[in-house]
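Quick illustration, no need to memorize.
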Amino acid sequence: MVEQKINTRKTEEGYYVEVLNDGKLAWTDTFETVERLNWFIKCCDGKSGGGLYLSQEEARKCLESGEYSVDFFYRHPMGYRFASITNHDVMPEDSRHGFGVACVDKDDRLDYRFVSTLDEAFQLIKDAEDGKV
C-alpha cells in the first residue's frame, strides 16, 4: 500500500500543491483558487470516489508488474489532471488483450481507447497532454 501525502502552501501565483507517494514526489501543481485546490485534494483523498493517483512512472511500473488498472496524474491542456490505464491481459476471463486508456480528448470529452501495447497506451497519454488526441 502506497502512503500518499499532500503538502500545500500559498504563493504569489496561487496555491501550490505537491503530492508525495511513499515520500517520493509524484506531482506538483499550482491552483488559482483555494476551491480548485480543495477539489483536487478531495479527488486524491480516496474517500469521495477518488483513489490513489500515481506518477506516470509509478503507473508504468505497476502495469508492467501485473496490476490490472492504475489511475495517475497527467497534464491536459484543458486542465484535467487524472487518467487511467487498464491492463486486460492480467484478467483471464477477459477475452480482450491489450490496454484500455481513459482520458479527456482535445474536444473536452472522456475518451476511451483500446491499444495493443503499454507503449501505445502511454503515447496516447502524451498525445492528450500535447492536445493531439
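The first strand starts at residue 4 and ends at 10.
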